[in-house]
Amino acid sequence: MFTHFDRSVFLTGVLSPPILVNTSKPIKTTQYSVQMNMDINIDNLYMQGGPGKSVAEFQKKIVKGSMSFFPRLNESNVLEDSVIDLINASQDYTTAFTLTTFLNPYSTEITGNSFPYVANTNSFVFDVCVAEKIILKAKKDASVEISVDVIGQTDFDNTVPLVLPPDDLNIYRNLSWYDCFFTRTGSQIENAHEIEISVIKEIDQRYFLMSYCDMDPDNPVGIDRPFSTGVKSVSVSFKIVEHVTSVFDIFNYSFGGFYEGFNFSGNIGPIQFSVPNAVLKISSQNLTPSIIERTTEGFYRMAPNTPDTQPMLFTI
Amino acid sequence: MPLNNNFYGVYKFVTVKTKPISTNVTGLNPYIIQSLAVADSMQTNAKFYMQGTPLTKVLDIGNVSQTIRIDAPILVPPPNQPDLADGLQLIWDLANLQYTNSIPNNFLPLLENAKINIGTDKSNVNLTLKSDGDPNNTVNVFEINSGATAQGYINTTNLNNGARVAKNYDFYVNIGGFCFFVDSADIEIKVNSTDKNFLGVYQGDTLFPFNYTVPQDGLNGGTYTDGDPSYSGWQFPFIAVGGIEITATGKAVISIDANGNFINYNNIQTYQTTVNGLLAASNVTLQYSGELTTTATNFNIFYAGSDTLSGVLPPVFATNKAVVTTRNSNFSEGVMTTDFTVKAYVGV
Q: Rounded distance, CA B13 to CA B16, Å?
């Protein structure tokens, strides 16, 4: 076997250019798959003289995808700016963020003649991104992991080439389980084995017929992206997995309910969180010959205008 | 095992008798349609007399009617390619066949009803055509073509370039002065028509010979030629054309901005909707007592097609003024909407 070592290498994620949050803040991800997304179905058939499918139906043109990463701390125990931006954007329903990749521009010929997905330069920016769902997951003996589901839309084409950010010379360590501390109504949750906190938004992306009221009739511009990426609702839920260590714990068991809320708060390294009025849903308790594992799920019983006061959940 | 799939409609092409605006020549022209349904009916009742038997011996055979229903898409070609012969083109060409200088011509099929459904997801047209059902018409009002003929129409209709279904960004609307977010707009063109049957005309001995025999069918297209003993066609109706009505109904959306501010759509257009914008009387031109409240050019629905804007309605109808007749506002936790109805002046 003869291998051409001098010809090419596969591009791996390690070698790919960094992704920028809010135009200038690099983020190192373990997985990144945010793409422009548009379903095109070719199911339409007519009395058309032959069996060839020639008529397409273009669906919503949006940005969609997900990313996950291990938040990192520098020598001063400070998170990267990009991570802070993403966490704040996830809890503030009025805040969007941008994502920039240094991919080659998409062809203008792919999806028709409107400009929003045309990148005129070597940069490609998703202008309006909303964190539809963020999950912070801390598990015993593991690094803390954050995953974000992104949905959004493009805005303007980006005519100014982006420049690569300067090399980051800081050294970092992963945020780990041993940076975490959790309390339930003031008492430390000692037996926790895994904690998961999610902020979930209900998104509505609508579009409308174009208005002829004040447009230039000689230069009509159709916009084939949604009018807005609107947030209709915000909810916060959590999951606590505990390993039962005493007989007392077995009977100290909540079936959930609405009667009495409790305060669930803690620290995930420099990320403080507080759910001042948590409600438990029905829990499950798995009794095995080895470790007894109990999972408690709950949600944040918030007032409708709670998300208007920021930060409503995470303080960094 | 032989493959036999010749029955599928996708291999066929429909031609309809029209007068395309581009050529102004009347004939059978191909259009891309989803479905065509033809209903022929002849009123027939059993008659019973004092006849000594309950068995049917006498039938009262009445008039013939023919209704043609067409469902066709609105299509957009690739950039810089010519427009397709789609449902919208079919309506235009039919109107061009039937009206010259606002006067109807005596051509069938008659466009009786057209619904242009414009939505953010999908747009299409539904047509109801009327013909007299006379099997002896010399020119059919439609034909189903197959084989090489059908394949030839692929280029004629410009379907060879491919197409896409029209979506929200292909339409530009200003209905009754609404400068708002319009979710959907349906336009109905209704041509009032009446079927009339008459007694046969006997025009005297000089035209009909004494040996005149009663014809058995409507030969010669129902057209009398001097001295033709086979003139018939009485069973097939005369179709009288009444007025043309154009009504638009739709759904406008009330303000999306939570703060009730003006909304800017990508800096291209400024919408003037506030939370209460659609409820203000001045914005919907409902009539004040004793007034005629219209605004010039307040009924415009344009279609971008390949590049340039053209009106959705047939040019022969030349419509640009309208009044708002109903407004139903709906408030819920979802999108707040106003359903509206607009009646347009035709030819104004």
A: 10
The residue-averaged pLDDT of A145-161 equals 77
For residue A123, what pLDDT band results from cuts at 50, 70 and 90?
Answer: very low
Bridge partners (DSSP) listed for residue A285 = A294
Q: Which of A208, A196, A81, A62 is nearest to A140 (CA)?
A: A196
pLDDT tens, residue by residue, A192-231: 889 999 999 999 888 788 776 656 666 666 677 777 788 8
In a domain, B231, yes or no: no
Q: Which of B143, B172, B187, B257 to mutate to test binding with chain A, by most A CBs within 10 Å of its CB?
A: B172
Task: Assess if residue B209 is contained within a domain.
Answer: no
Binary contact (A215, B268; C-beta < 8 A): yes
Residue type, A309: T
Q: Answer yes or no: do A206 and B122 touch at CB < 8 A.
A: no
Domain ranges of chain A: 18-37+57-206+226-315
Q: Is A302 a residue whose pLDDT tops 60?
A: yes
Helix (H, G, I), strand (E, B) or coil at A273: strand
Cβ under 8 Å to B: A residues 242-261: none
Question: Does B154 reside within a domain?
Answer: yes
Measure the CA–CA gap between A261 and A265, rounded to whole angstroms. Answer: 13
CB pairs under 8 A between A and B: 151
Tell me if chain B has a CB within 8 Å of the CB of A227. Answer: yes
Whether the CB of A289 is below 8 Å from some CB of chain B: the reply is no
Q: How confident is the model at residue A181 (pLDDT cuts 50, 70, 90)?
A: very high
On whether residue B260 sits in a domain, the answer given is yes
- Facing residue for B173 by CB, picked from A212, A217, A224: A212
- Residue range of the domain that includes B332: 9-43+59-194+239-344
